[in-house]
Amino acid sequence: MKTYEQPTSRELFMRAVKVIPGGVYGHLGPAEGCFTPVSSYPLFATKAQGAYFWDVDGNRYIDYMCAYGPNILGYNDKDVDAAALAQLKDGNCVSSPSPKMIELAELLVDTVKMADWAFFAKNGGDTTLFALMIARAATGRPKAVLTRGGYHGVQPWTQKDGHPGVTPQDLANNLYVEFGDYEALERVFTEHKGEIACFMATPYHHPVFEDNRLPPEGYWKKVRALCDREGVVLAVDDVRCGFRLDVKGSDYHYGFEADIECFCKALANGWNVSAVCGKDSLKEAAGSVMYTGSYWLSAVPIAAAIACINKMRDIDSAKICTEKGRKLTQGLVASGKRHGYNLIVSGEPSMWFMREEGDDTMEIHQAWVAECVKRGVFMANHHNLFINTAMTDEDIAFTLEVADDAFAAIAKRGLVPQSGAAGKDR
Amino acid sequence: MVDQTTLARVNLNALLRALEDLPNWDEPARKIAEGRPETVQFSVGGVGAARLAIGNGKIAFIPGGGPCSIKLWFPKPANLNAMFAGTGNPIPLKGLTKISYLKGPFTQLTDRLGYYLRTTPELLKGKAYRDANASLSLHAAVYTIGEVGNSDRDGKLNAGRMADGEILFSAKGGPAFTIASKGGKLECRKGAPERPRAHMVLSSLEAAGSLLRGELDSYAAIGSQKLELGGYMPNLDHLNKILGLVPRYLR
């Protein structure tokens, strides 16, 4: 199978790094994105359509990162983009907001089961901080309980002590428990009775580098009851999972109701808007928090979100993504087995995580993913992957062909799983 | 924030240790080390001791106290740091008659190390000088990682998050080191690990020097494949946070 080369990406990177810290910073860059080896990965794209993007060297990739989540209906979805472009003609960032904002709030209240109101911002991190501030405003308490390894953005309070730019004071009000450990949560609530404003967690645990974990049976119902008993706000960070598990919200998917739910990524199929949905009991507190941004009420992404939500509802995008994800992952696992590799798949099928068994250096998985990328299937080796509804059965079939060829390539290099894998990150 | 104890540990266990590599690169240093054999012990209150055995054209760094011909005492970490900054002197406890050795050959050796570590644009025009600077800097940087990871507040937090395993840190055509993490503590040593759990490999000694001198941005190094990362990435991520603290201690 032909493998790609990306000389123009390399040239552009060297140009970028002179004027942009990191060249390509953050999750899309070679460092945070764990491009291992970098030589296998494209660094810049020129265009995208449906399930694909094309790099600056003209190579096409089926994109299983989906821009790390925003692409749920396929890049340049005609209905979403038509709504955005129509709004652009009428106005975008104006001194008065567009009535479209009310329309989107009404649509979210009608769509997301727990929602009584909606508030808009730009990024996932805007929403998680707002959720925390609402909880503090409502309860008069300072502390937040978070799950170890849970991701809620990049603001200092979401990062780790000892990381650049983060002070111990930034984290002074955080308490941590393991995801899914109800007893630990109850213990922390008891130890800090009257101090905890909110418990914030993702609907299921999807950290980087390690198996993703679904909530244990009955976990969320017990957490809901505990939060009610202790007067703690239950905030669900649905930024990554939102609309990929259920258009009604991931809390609905797991059979409970959050007090606050944070959305971003799939909300507008790549147009930049995020949302916080909340219960009536927190509406006044939400209104009391001074929270805004230069572009938060811009109408174009709001119009896109309306079109995106309507389409996700119409086609049941979560069901489509789940079915395609299941079909793909079953095929990938079977492909691995044919070559002597045991691909461990975890998380939800619409946004699964995978790794190789017996690979405590991660080098086998890194090598396999790199071989897939070089053959036109774009994936990350450290992060969960994503499905979008534009992916076809032909795309899945092609992906499986690539996976097979990539497994053959790493087997030929003598990369074999080891027994007695060492410990994981502390 | 620079912690004086960590700085003393870096001075003692990383900078002094870099003298080991000096005779490999510098003929005058090798000749000085061919003189009268001496073993100099540095003892620092609250930090520990280390010895430099100088003779036969070689310099050996020996962790811990023990047999020596000259013993220097620094009551507090700040006293050792003052000596390295040129603003303080040690208290000789043994070898009082050998003060002339300290002021003579030993100072000449440390001056030769300083010559290679304190670069100028003019000096860097020579390839031999650049290679020596790269190797000695890499040597000092690796051992500084260990001291910062085991002593500095932020360093300890990040080292404490590392899984057990060994990291290969090397420059192709240059030296290789092992950075081992076990129970959240770091141990650095010369030579490549037998089975590295992760690797951080510079494409050349030239690339190592450029990176350590700050001429090459680390992200540019990764993107341009001058710095290859692979393996158990969480450990490299934590190590990178410690690496970011190294310049505070190696000014």
Please explain how this structure is put together.
The complex is a heterodimer of chains A (426) and B (251). With 426 residues, chain A is of the alpha/beta class. Chain A is globular. In chain A, a hairpin with a 4-residue loop joins strand 2 (52-55) and strand 3 (60-63). In chain A, the strands form 3 sheets. Chain A has a 7-stranded mixed beta sheet with strand order 4-10-9-8-7-5-6, with helices on both faces. Chain A has 2 domains: 7-63 and 317-412, Aspartate Aminotransferase, domain 1 (Alpha-Beta Complex), CATH 3.90.1150; 78-315, Type I PLP-dependent aspartate aminotransferase-like (Major domain) (Aspartate Aminotransferase, domain 2, 3-Layer(aba) Sandwich), CATH 3.40.640.10. Chain A has helices at residues 7-19, 78-90, 100-111, 124-139, 182-191, 219-230, 250-253, 283-288, 299-315, 317-338, 363-374, 393-412, and strands at 45-49, 52-55, 60-63, 117-121, 143-147, 174-177, 196-201, 233-237, 260-263, 274-278, 343-346, 353-356, 377-378. By secondary structure, chain B is an alpha+beta fold. Chain B has 2 domains: 4-117, Nonspecific Lipid-transfer Protein, Chain A (2-Layer Sandwich); 123-249, SCP2 sterol-binding domain (Nonspecific Lipid-transfer Protein, Chain A). In chain B, 45% of the residues lie in helices and 24% in strands. Chain B contains 11 helices and 10 strands. In chain B, the strands form 2 sheets. Chain B has a 5-stranded mixed beta sheet with strand order 3-2-1-4-5. Chain B has a 5-stranded mixed beta sheet with strand order 8-7-6-9-10. Classes of the chains: A alpha/beta (426), B alpha+beta (251). The interface between A and B is medium-sized, with 35 and 35 residues.
